[in-house]
């Protein structure tokens, strides 16, 4: 058994999540975490809402509410979205807890004490019309490196390079389009050049990473520069050093620390405050960070640099583990267009859950998501995969097997003498656990799901060839259905990480009792250190099915089945496209 940290990107608390978000951080991390638990590992899956920074402040001002009120509203919306999708967090919290403030400030003080935060005078942008600071992310212009018109003042999403707002050509405010003024201001910078050799050495030891992620991370070292870790803003975590009053921690400095602070909060809530160290301080522990490709910089460079700077002479948290792997997905587009909530090019998670349920969405994002290249979501493909694969292949196998068992025997029949065909199917089904598990350990979710679904296709073909409905020998008919039930049970285990809601139903269909695929729950909790109460996602995931074939038990009653999945009509495509274009 290995301690496995599943560190899931922190969704920004400025609105509901759309399916492009959860295609990168949500579903892949949950599939991996559920599999790892079934395989016997001790998993800690943590995240929360990221609630500091300029976008929250600007949006709150536009809506006439405080930043905290805005964050409270969308924290709850996001918690409901992610719990409804079945993401099995041990703790999903938020960055406005007093626990997080304390952990972030402690790391900042240690990194500063170790000499890796250096003061520098720089050019900060202000709004000419309001006189207020205009942070980098709210300035757009032409990238001086690749020429992309739409680069932000801190990073170009086209070429991935770090930028300074003053270097943009034709800079403009994203708020009102005006040209910003640049004035001198002092900030504390993370000394990335001083850490570049250590970062490069660490990255060179990484094996098994997706090639695009590792190549991108190594390329970042070609022109590494100090990066500001403080901001002129009045919404965020105060800089915990004398002489820096009025400054706040850069939102990306504190957000990545959330993985640690959430782990500490989880441990405190379990009554064992030091339990988090098994995932963070034990060198044999493994940690996997899940996100979209726009966050590679912060997880493959900034966060490891913070950890290296901290570990040079660690504080009370001790030496902290660097990531085992940064698991980044590419982008999901919608009907050929980039997702954009502001432009209403969006499909919200909660809308899909309300109309189609969680597992059809989880299935699509697993089998056709942006694992290693940008992928387009279309409603026609969503309907096709639901009907042909979930309903036509897997649902059909479950229903026909359970129906024939119920009609002919009322319970799972015993197996008689096995033929070569029987033995080959059972052996292949058994071997699928090794194949699918190997693929999931490599984060090859698409291929893993395809292999699991291949089990169902093989069983459908077996039933068609053996035709138990034509078999006059009752013992032989029972043997065929016993073999089919075994493969259904195996396939259900193989699909449990991907389809937790429906695999619970299949478990019951074959006469199973109790929890098969544990579900997360929402709890209302008090801040551990006296702050306002808030909702969290958590759950008890100790009762997991084993990642192995378990023999079905003859005599287990099987009732008449009900359909596991619903077929979607072609009109769904027109209805959903009408919703999209109506918003346009």
TrEMBL record:
Gene Ontology biological process terms from the UniProt entry: methionyl-tRNA aminoacylation
Binding positions for Zn(2+) per the UniProt entry: 143, 146, 156, 159
UniProt key word Ribosomal protein: no
Catalysed reaction, written as an equation: tRNA(Met) + L-methionine + ATP = L-methionyl-tRNA(Met) + AMP + diphosphate
Methionyl-tRNA synthetase anticodon-binding domain mapped to chain residues: 412-531
Cofactor note (record): Binds 1 zinc ion per subunit.
GO cellular component terms, A-Z: cytosol
Position of sequence motif 'KMSKS' region: 338-342
Motif 'HIGH' region, residue numbers: 11-21
GO molecular function annotation: ATP binding; metal ion binding; methionine-tRNA ligase activity
HAMAP family in the record: Met_tRNA_synth_type1
Subunit structure: Monomer.
Protein family: Belongs to the class-I aminoacyl-tRNA synthetase family. MetG type 1 subfamily.
Function in brief: Is required not only for elongation of protein synthesis but also for the initiation of all mRNA translation through initiator tRNA(fMet) aminoacylation.
The protein's name in its UniProt record: Methionine--tRNA ligase
